[in-house]
Specification:
There is one protein chain. The protein has a two-stranded antiparallel ribbon with strand order 1-2. Strand 1 and strand 2 form a beta hairpin. The longest helix is centred in the first third of the chain and has 22 residues, at about 15-35. It has 1 helix and 2 strands, in the order αββ. The chain has about 80 residues and is α+β, with helices and mostly antiparallel strands. The protein has one helix at about 15-35, and strands spanning about 55, 65-70. The radius of gyration is 19 Å and the shape is flat.
């Protein structure tokens, strides 16, 4: 349907375009998992509003899986 707007102003705002991209990606991931009969997908999106958040398995009794950005940071106090 978006192809109908070639000569006109694009009907979606940047925020809506982002959501559309995320929804398409989630659909492709779900389709991949269904067709391959698996529950695992690389870089799986679990939140439309925070597509950068990933499930992190912690193995805790209360919450075995936590959600957050996979981010690594290390500081080195050595002088260069």
């Amino acid at each position: 349907m978006l192809d109908m707007f070639e000569d006109k102003e694009f009907p979606l705002s940047r925020r809506e375009q982002r959501y559309l991209f995320v929804i398409r990606t989630v659909f492709e991931q779900q389709k991949y998992m269904y067709e391959n009969k698996t529950h695992v997908c690389p870089h799986r999106i679990v939140s439309l509003h925070q597509p950068h958040a990933r499930p992190i398995v912690r193995g805790k009794q209360k919450a075995p899986v936590e959600f957050g950005a996979k981010l690594g940071l290390s500081l080195d106090n050595r002088s260069l």
